[in-house]
Write a structure and sequence with these properties.
By secondary structure, the chain is mostly helical. The chain has one domain (2-110). It has helices spanning 2-24, 28-54, 61-85, 91-110.
Length: 118
């Protein structure tokens, strides 16, 4: 389950970058296709995350924080892409994205239920 979750968010990051550059390059049709695939990946990421969360013996604050920050990252993906498509300022969202992604990665790799912790 953990490897499926990690694969999902790595693919989502890659597709986010692809969609971003497609939007910046003016290729709206390609960007929309990539965004639709990205939205399916969001569902897979959330589903695998919920499945992993149900396997945790004791859910504490760190797991809840990681869940909220993960959903925050997904929301920021959408906000950055939609505001970029409308040629609006996204600098505040990029700052939030860096903070939220760093938090999610730190918690994801440091919590007991991680592929790095046997």
């Amino acid at each position: 389950m953990i490897h499926g979750h990690i694969t999902g968010w790595v693919l989502a990051l890659i597709l986010f970058v692809v969609a971003f550059f497609l939007i910046k390059g003016g290729k709206t049709k390609g960007a929309k296709i990539v965004q639709m695939i990205l939205r399916v990946l969001y569902l897979a990421i959330i589903a695998t995350g919920v499945m992993m969360l149900t396997q945790v013996y004791k859910i504490d604050f760190q797991y809840i924080l990681k869940t909220v920050a993960g959903i925050w990252v997904i929301g920021l993906f959408e906000m950055i892409l939609s505001r970029t498509a409308k040629n609006k300022n996204t600098s505040v969202f990029w700052i939030q994205f860096v903070i939220a992604l760093a938090l999610v990665l730190y918690l994801g790799f440091s919590l007991p239920m991680s592929f790095m912790n046997p």
